[in-house]
Structures are given as C-alpha cells and as structure tokens.
Amino acid sequence: MKTFPKPTVAQTQELLRWIPKRPCYSEWIIVIAAIANTFEPQLALRILTSYFIEEKKGEHWYQINNGLKNITYGSLIHLAKKYGFRGINSDSDGSELNSYNKEFCYEFNDLIIAERAFNLRSQNNLTKAQSDTIIKNQFSDAAAERIYRCCVNYSVIDKNIDPVSKKSYKGFKEFTNNFENTVLSDYNLAYCIGCGYSIILSEMKADEFGKVYRKSGNWSGSELVGIDIDAGMTITAALEMDFTWKSLLLYTTVSHKIEENRFRIIFALPFWTSYSTFYKKNISVIMDHYPNCDRATKDVCRAFYGNTNSTIYLFSKGLILNFQNGMKESEYGF
Taking CA atoms, which of 63, 142, 169, 222 is between 20 and 30 Å from 105? Predict the structure, then answer.
C-alpha cells in the first residue's frame, strides 16, 4: 500500500489558522494530540506555542507528553473543516491523503461514563466519535464496545421487497431514498441483515428529515468494507482462510444456494476515513485476498441487500446466527 507524505509545518499552520485561538478544552487537547503524534516533541511545541497563548506555563509541553495517543493528523483536518477549511490545494504535496483518523464510536457499559461522553458531545458541539474517543482515553479501563457508523433502509427487505406487502417494488425509489444514518454494534448489524434490511457501510449526508439519498456525492466517510463472493468460492473455502477470520461477519445472500454459494463478508477498518480514494485503495487491498469477488463493490455508496433467510457467521462474537423469514431461528457458538 502506498505510504502517505508526512504533513509539513506550513500545512499544519494553515490548518491551525482556521481553528479558534481559544478553542474549548476538548478541541484543544485534540489539536495538541494530533500535532504531538505527528511531529517530534520540540517541533510540536514550537508549532503550538506559535499559535496558542499559554494560560498556564508548560501546559502544552505537559499535554504533548501526556495527551491522547490514538489521535491522528486526520483529526486536525476534520476540526479545521468544522470551522470552514475546504481542502488543501493541489500543490500541497499530497497531505490530503492524511484524511483519516482513529476516532471511533463506543457503547459504554457504565451509564455514568456514557453520560459523560454525551455531555461532552452536546456541550462542545463534537461528533459522537470525537467525544467517545476522548472519554475512552480518559477511562481506558472502562468496558466499552466499538460500534459502527452506517446506514440502514428499513423500508426494503431482501431484493427490493416491501416488508409489509411482501411484494417487489416497481422501481428502486424506496431503495434509493430511504436510508437512515445510525450506529450499530456488530451484533445489531448482523441482526439488521438477518431481518432483511438493506445497508450502506458508510455514513452519508442526510436531508432535513434525516433521510439519505444514495449517491456518491452524499458520502461522508466509512470504517466498514463489504465484498461480494458470487461465484468461484465456497463458504468452506472462505472459512479456511485466516484473513476471513479477521472480518466482522460473513453472511449468505438472497441468491445463495447449497450447490452455488453466494455470500458477503464485512470488515471493520482500523480507522475512519473521509477520503474516497484512500477508502477505495483499502477496499482493493482486501479484495486482493479474494480473486473471485465482485470488484464493483468499490463504489463508496454501494448498498447491500439483507437476507431474511441468511446464515451469519459473526466472527467477532464467535456466533452463528440462522434466520428464517426475518426471524432469528437459532444462535450458537463456534
């Protein structure tokens, strides 16, 4: 995979120019962490103190050495965009390729910690991923499960079927127009698939009513990848591959037959990206492990049908779920 150009001081100063000189505390520590995790400590200090005024002597140096460790340069770009930054120009030496971060959404077991994350988000106008990541770092021992940003269409089951009348829609208006952004655990993602609902493995821009129109221009970013196996490989062969066991889940599609296996594999990326070219390159890397896969699934807003009669291998939980007519019939470990 191609390595990305290291951001320059000039590019970093341009990003800082868009951020308030006195940001709220949660944004301030994200900025420091993004710069401290990119540059050597002394240089990071010079960049920060050339822009921010220290209210307490040594506070930047302390955060550089003791701040958040999983915040990447992409978080700085994301924050600058919040305040109006619209992209690095064409002679920027390619630092736009750093448009990815390790800010994830979590489901906290402790309700008090979950409330802290909610309050941090609402009081500082942060995304759920930003606030959850900050709290996860502050309470590193807290039990929490990563949950995934995606879209679900509850008005379509299987291959473009009305879930009420059980008849096929005439055309694809309902399939294209009725997605909704959500965050799901791996288990709930599997359950939606088994109920037959269609999914987009990305976050999308929604209208004022919260509805998502499926088109590439509405793509916001992704942390999930799905690939289709329609011919040339059996589920048994896929299960014999170590790489398959690194995925979240594998499920049989509507077209699956015993004599002709058809299935889909969903992977969780170790980052979130809002840069489509970078996302597609990572899809290609995964696809290279499966020569028989459908290469068309590199579309960033590709929608995948669910299957009300699916068998789902939920690798992340060590479970096999069997669905019949949209109802979970059995669940057992493997």
Answer: 63
The string of pLDDT tens digits covering residues 155-167 is 999 999 999 999 9
Mapping DSSP to helix (H, G, I), strand (E, B) and coil, where does residue 38 land? coil
- Say how many Å lie between the first and final Cα of the chain, rounded: 33
For residue 154, give the 3-state DSSP assignment: strand
Tell me if residue 238 falls in helix, strand or coil.
helix
Q: Residue 131 is inside which H or E element, if any?
A: helix 128-138
- Amino acid in position 198: S
Q: What is the distance of C-alpha 324 from the center of its chain?
A: 29
The amino acid present at 244, given as its one-letter code, is T
* Whether this model's pTM surpasses 0.85: no
> What 8-state DSSP symbol labels residue 293?
B
Cβ within 8 Å of residue 24, ≥6 positions away: 124
d(CA 175, CA 180): 11
